[in-house]
């Protein structure tokens, strides 16, 4: 399985290595660096690289490369999923996953890696089990440990590891019992020049934050569960019950977790909440003009907020001289990225941005117009219309505080111009 | 306080300072010191010098300190084996600890100490832990077996750990089952003998399926991979397994989903194609695959590579999902390219309009590689979907108008293909193409343009001028362009002979006189000869109607596709190559899809048979029945009979009488191959040599193969064998490999009690019987013994590949020697490949895997060589005569399932023949060459 892990920063330093079997010399990373040189940018490095004796499987997260080295035929997704899980765990423990954070907590990182994999086989990857084994660092505990000489490694057997509900630790106790569910939908779309939808799909998640004492058994029902035809569940969800009754029945993991994710494909009609009227043109000489207006489309009565437009301009663009009726724009002459932060859209006064684009003198006009990446947020509403009906709790006597929040966001929302 | 302080001590004398801190009395200081040591270790500094001091800290109640020391131990035990022994006692003690966490930790760490000496001490604690009452300990111990196997495989087998592991497959705890499966899979992978350790029967299947629902996501992947290797006995069983696997498709972990897809794809093969069950299942398969495409880009990439296989096998599965493969602007390039591939595969009349408008959009993007592929994709769409051809061509013309250099060049390359697919349809655009002639600077584009001009020379008024313009820099052109130019000008001449004579003369002389490229020269001479002797014939040859090009290109060859389907979710599916092609030392059984429901009854039998064939030597009919068998076989004989001989096949009986002698007498070289030719025995009393003769005539595999064997060589000289001298050789007779030895006693006293052992070797050679030396070998006496060998032993790669290490024990001592086995003893009797398979396999193996050798002093004709090789299980598949040279195409199968394809080139009047061989495992090439040398010179 997984032989070794190297963590490499964006400048190409291997600053952390962990070997679960014999030590593989660091020079193996040279093959990775070769691939890096060949790729145009860091995102384009292929995730599977073959070398004469090893396979390198890598992921790129928060500008760090996590390179796993394998020697036998392995399921690559297994390794890739595991690497993502490692980063998720780091983020869970330290808030974020950067080079300095990893260095700052290297002992915990090393202990974590050691617990997560044994001889290349995943051992404990559930965050609550890990947290029972290795306490996440916090200032209070660090001070307490220094004073008392205790460590952040627990000496008890992680009970969850063997129970039928490995995702939940036993003996949970809260003074305030609460359960919150966030329904988030991300719209991935490609809009063509004329404003028509080429493809649009919804990627939805229900994340929960459950702080309930004891061993509660929850059921969650939906107003319109027929929306789900493609759905992946957290292991805690009882599949049989879902298939027969379309009811989510589960013993929730303690704390934050993703209960389910669903996908509504391009075959169903997806309402697009914003439209963009654009006119970008480049002349043969003397640069080009740009005129963009953003407006709400099918918003179901909600306000569109947090609107940001990102336009990667062609290489030959030197600068943009624009006026905006709302928000702020910036143009980065190095990355050629034009960014317009609009904020909330007022339907009565549509935000507009217009002006001139100056182009390197002598260079021919670009072959194609740039693409517009759009970000937006619509709160209190899931685009698909998904609604939670009710949440019931069994097995425990208290009456928890319950809440459901809906958000629609732009995922990878691109407008061709 | 953070941990980064541990990284800051870089001053001199650091090691010394750490040493004193480690030996400090204060617990806290000790722990800090160990932390510093670990910190240095993680960043790659060498702190192995502190080994004894760190090990001293091991005896502690503090779990964190213990863990840290364990970490250190795992890293450095290898470099300090003697010191590491000091730690053994603590491990043994920790394995008895009342706290299961400590027991598990100890057994886990033990396995990570990769020191041979230590492993022996660990067997007892491990055995106990495998039976521990606590499942957490058991599951940790299960993995530990795999660790030990990696360090010392034979010990694990001897100690019976494998059986204990198999018992864990029926453990009550699903986690333990999953880990046992994982461990067994890993051991299997490493041993590469191809013998699956796990016997998958209905009962184990049931247990695995139950554990599948309850174990962790990673365990599910292991179990699903194991399940995929099971062959259900009938459709009903396959269906019920599928039903229990299907819920896994809704798992959040992409690895679980893809492994489940593998199982379902494989078991679906067993079902009737259009049954309701299959329809339902295909419906359920599509959504999870689509969902994988909204995960991280790395996951998308692996998913896309697999989807590429799946849509080739079952195109209907994703035919409605075209839109999810549309490329996003900020997809990584590796995702973009894969998506494009799949878009073309899914393109059909129903969606072609959408696909084309997308492709056109992509063709204006920034990334050059992607744009090129998009343009090519448009061409492939035109070829695939006939109704769209016109639209594609106009899209390509639009793109040519952009004048972007690389777009134009790609467009011209694909337009050439479109012309070939739809001749005489779109020639109107030629003028537009010609406008861009000057901008073409890539060989492929230039060659394509020249081809177009030549092909349509009669419609292009200034074709001669255009071609002439290329001719100026003829010698600087790429070979591809030169060849095209030559052909194009000859075509032009044949179409417009009046005004192009000068041009054709010019190009012919350029190609034949001034070029040192043999291909170009040859083609030039052929044209020249053709034109000068018979222009009519030339016209027929050069302007002949070309076959239409195939509809879909880039399809994976069906047998390979079936194999790859069995490897969905694995690295093989990412490379689109079978594991044997890239995994080191992987010589195990290749997986095959189960046969479809129609013949699934034979299926399991067939598989068994295959396995038997690999394990046991083929049984050869005894000599009495041999001749009748051969006579009956002539009708079904493989079609390798040389063209001149089929006339004889009818009257086999007659052949045996009078006619035969003269026939045999005719072929002088044949006689050499069959020394017994003169005395043709009657049918009843046939002996092996006559069987060989018949085989010669009918081109049949001479199954009775009396393979050649080398003369005995001195293996163990008397001075090293304390008086025992051994000479020996290897041979393959009737499919049985044997080691023939002569033991000569040069000592003063008799030698008895012989025994033999063979070390692990590349081909798994192992004695299938004990060494049987009948009586004591008296002084100055010699005995011939023959030891039957099997190829079922453990496999380990040797260098050279055929190296065999032998240990012989006798009443005096144990002696070791090494010898090299001739490769031909591994050629199996079932090595004749079907002609078609041969052809596709030959094409399929990349040309860098081709190796060439010269074999000198071969005084035989093609048939003689073929016969001689046939007797050693090198099977001639086809024979061709090209320009007076005889070409023999042959296939060989080695006992470990590796196929080797060879081509022998014989030049008349030259005793040197050229052997080219192709195999997925090129390591065997040298050995095969030596075998050929040996066989042909014997």
TrEMBL record, chain A:
Keyword terms: Cytoplasmic vesicle, Golgi apparatus, Membrane, Protein transport, Transport
Sequence intervals crossing the membrane: none
Domain MHD: 176-416
Lipid bilayer topology: Peripheral membrane protein
Localization per record: Cytoplasmic vesicle membrane; Golgi apparatus
Main location: membrane
Pfam families: Adap_comp_sub, Clat_adaptor_s
PANTHER family in UniProt: AP COMPLEX SUBUNIT MU
Domain of life: Eukaryota
InterPro entries per UniProt: Adaptor_comp_med_subunit, AP2_Mu_C_sf, AP_mu_sigma_su, Clathrin_mu, Clathrin_mu_CS, Longin-like_dom_sf, MHD
Protein name: MHD domain-containing protein
GO biological process, one term: intracellular protein transport
A GO-annotated cellular component: cytoplasmic vesicle membrane
Family stated for the protein in its record: Belongs to the adaptor complexes medium subunit family.
